[in-house]
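Repro case for the chain-ordering regression, as requested:
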Amino acid sequence: MASAFRLAARRQSIPVQIGPVTVGGDAPVVVQSMTNTDTADVESTVRQVAALARAGSELVRITVDREESAAAVPHIRERLDAAGVDVPLVGDFHYIGHKLLTDYPACAEALAKYRINPGNVGFREKRDRQFATMIEVAMQYDKPVRIGVNWGSLDQEVLARMMDANSKAASPKSGDEITNEAMVVSAVESAQLAEELGLPANRIILSCKVSAVQSLIAVYGDLAARCNYALHLGLTEAGMGSKGIVASTAALAVLLQQGIGDTIRVSLTPEPGGDRAQEVIVAQQILQTMGLRSFMPLVTACPGCGRTTSTLFQKLAGEIQDYIRDRMPVWATTFEGVETMNVAVMGCIVNGPGESKHADIGISLPGTGEDPAAPVFIDGRKAMTLRGPNLASDFRGIVEDYVEK
Ligand code: SF4
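-- result from build under test --
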């Protein structure tokens, strides 16, 4: 039966080409991430970019904060190319981006996109001159830019102008409303200035990041209505662990449901020594669970309850998920846009057979007191019953055979 719930039509945006990746237009919503290495450390940065790309990041941003970083960028690009990692690199510039891009032409060339924060390019006439320099470099090297506004570094001149106008308004808005509006105005005015300088609209992506879920939804709703530039979504400083994942998912899901967003980044604070690729996995899972993209087969597992006394099914579900994750790059490239494969690992016969029949492959493990047998369903039909101590490895083998075929 068709679902009564549907995604809103995708907002029409101007597609932007970033190396081989298209952001906006009819292109799938792109997953991107950012390194946390010192870019001047070529070895560590190459390793992390490659890991993020392997996890499925389609664009990777690196900070270019000083001369040593700018000098390292072409070497990072060369090393990645030599290793067959062709993920486009985005340079994140603040304060001295104009200088780094002009003094290090090999850096300007090696990057596939420049991120410009209009709140961090200088003040007054310096700001316009330095912003113009970055746009001119982008035009010279035929690169797109992201004009990325962040409420932690909002252009104070735009904010002051809007607060002044608000103080004279008949019905003044709240401070939060003015801040949100100032972010949108800063992004749109900067994009218009870039166009006036000669950068075409199909070289411009916008973002307005905040760290509060409701503000992000309000800001992007406003931004989407005011322009047709491609939009980069992300909740900034989302936080650690489940808090960061839940907050990012809540904010991005609402916007994506409204058809807003052409590329997403999930900004998670990793545990010390934690896996940076986690943010890529979460971004993919957001898109996949919303039915926007297919990255990997889905594993459906029941939560378990008093009917399961062993941890066999949790262990098996985890192993199947890991196996699929290892195979993910193959799926990401081969199965893009194809309906997702679904594997069900269920704890007992209560919901096991029913859920398994709806999956491509499903197993219903024996719960407490049940016959120690596990029926396996393939393509909706019972294919066999597994028994004995090798049940888990037998099922893994069945999944592997199915994936191979
Ligand atoms: Fe419990 Fe069985 Fe339902 Fe799993 S399928 S949650 S084990 S009743």
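Ordering looks correct now. The chain has a mean pLDDT of 90.
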